[in-house]
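SAMPLE LOG
Freezer: B-3
Tube label: C17
Construct: single chain, 360 aa
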Amino acid sequence: MIGITGWIIFEFLKFPVPPLLGPLTVTIIFKLAEIPLPDIPGFLYPALQIILGMYIGSRINRETFRQIFQFAAPFVVVFLWVIAITVSLGALLQFSLGSDFYTSLLAVAPGGIADMGVVALAVDADLTTVMLFQISRLFFVLIIVSMFFKSGERGDEGRLSEDLNEKPWIIKIFLNRVNVLRNIWSSLFRTVKSPVNTGNLRRMFPCIVVGLFGGWLGHLSGIPAGTLFFSIIAVGLVNVRMGNMFPPPPFSRKFVQGGVGIVTGHRFSTEILGELFNFTGIVLLVLVIVIVSAILVAYIIRHFTGWDLALCFLCAAPASLVTMVTLAEQFEKDSLKVGVLHLSRILTIKAVLFIILVFF
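STRUCTURE (predicted):
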């Protein structure tokens, strides 16, 4: 209910990406107000990744494999950028805050909130500082990307009658918002109450089975976002070999976005907010440098690949892999390219951190 409430409010106010940012914002408000929230089921995040994997994998075909060579230049660009941004910002943080080497490095490394938190605990770094910078970067990038794209799917908001133009502007706004709420409610009602199409279920069944099997293998592998990528690979390979892999229905993507928003919001806390007030200046400086450098990387990727700038920006945005893939789906961009480049970023930072932690 928390997620749906946030979704409806953001849709009503016409904010960007309501299914994602609505639940995220409401969850953060609840956390800051210290209102008890139910624990997130352990299966939720892997389930979201598997559903995304089914979507992406079902679009893989033989032509996809012929385009693999296009990833060579972006791989190199992302690799060099991750190393440069981690080392330089880590040094900046150590100099400005006087924090220890490990804390500074893990705070700015674009390698994922959960993974950096685990490493911070392992090396006895300042976990609160690490989480502050990691979560601030995620939220900042998410908002910037969402505002940049706006909402690519305003849906059928309904049409007001022609005489609406003759009414005072305040009445126009009120009636328009009421119309938006009516359509959201109708959409949710149709989703929940509509009869099950057994024909579609039979066509989706192979994709679901293959996606679940691939996701299970990915979960066992321990690879970052392995659940997502193994489900993509499994469904994609079967689709190339047999064809006609029927993905889950489109409305489930909305629930994936809501789930990602809730999971992300749960990571916020009052302790992190307190630290943010203490380090506002340096946090903003780091965020600005990261965003500007990511935009430059996006332009470089576009130069080498010819991809559109919006896709390149999603590929370069230093935020959660699953979140960026979700946004790529939202804005109908090539989510496979986004996911592959974000995976290369995460693996690069893990390799760099491994070398540093072992030899320094």
